[in-house]
Amino acid sequence: MTSVLVNPVSSSHKSIAIFASGTGTNAKNIIEHFSQHPFINVQLVVCNKPTAGVVDIAAANQIPALLIDKEKFFRGTGYLNELKEAQIDFIVLAGFLWKIPQTLVDAYRNRIVNIHPALLPKFGGKGMYGTKVHEAVIAAGETESGITIHYANEDYDKGDIIFQASCPVLREDSAESLAERIHGLEHKHYAKVIDKIMIEL
Ligand code: GRF
Questions:
Q1: Domain coverage including residue 41
Q2: How many domains does the chain have?
Q3: Cα 94 to averaged position of ligand 1 atoms, centre (Å)
Q4: How far is the centre of ligand 1, averaged over its atoms, from the C-alpha of 95 (Å)?
């Protein structure tokens, strides 16, 4: 009797690069979610700010951090070669503020996701990040906000929406208290949604 050895891990293995330039709480959550995953791993953290908290999170989890330079990112093939060398299949944006260059959008079409801390298409676009989003939501008198997970393309916050979850905006909310509620939603959903998309890749 002959037996054929098939290695299900190597044939279906998928690697993520997380692009982040802030504190990295979402990155931490995603790294933890996939740390025991049978065929998906976080292979690389890409960051444009050497002092960002996410660099320490990468180090604490033995994940290499690639520090990128603006000139190189937006010129020619950018960091496509480095991503290919690291065998990255999927890019997760988690607090990354630079636009994604066309080369990367083309190479990873429908394989780049972003999370936005509001219910797109409202309160998105250039300059709408961090506290500014929550301030705008409160100033507009919204009674509801939330998170949007969407495919990223060459425009800010314009790719197809994959998932949204909402939460109330309370009369007494400050941008900070609303940000905290939104962060809770992000941590609850982002890794799970990524997991679901990647299983279907
Ligand atoms: C999140 O609020 C996310 O919606 C936005 O950037 C923030 C990153 O937060 N895109 P953290 O660094 O993961 O805590």
A1: 14-109
A2: 2
A3: 6
A4: 4
Residue 24 belongs to domain with CATH number: 3.40.50.170
- SS3 readout for 91-136: EEECCCCCCCCHHHHHHCCCCEEEEECCCCCCCCCCCCCCHHHHHH
> Among 13, 33, 37, 116, which one carries the catalytic annotation?
116
| 127 in the same domain as 96 | no
pLDDT tens, the chain, 201 aa long: 434 444 444 458 999 999 999 999 999 999 999 999 999 999 999 999 999 999 999 999 999 999 999 999 999 888 999 999 999 999 999 999 999 999 999 999 999 999 999 999 999 998 899 999 999 999 999 999 999 999 998 888 889 999 999 999 999 999 999 999 999 999 999 999 999 999 988
Q: Please work out whether the CB of residue 23 comes within 6 Å of at least one atom of ligand 1.
A: yes
Q: Is the CB of 113 under 6 A from ligand 1?
A: no
Tell me, yes or no, whether 86 and 104 share the same domain: yes
3-class secondary-structure state, position 178: helix
* Apex 146 CA angle, 142 and 149, nearest 5: 140
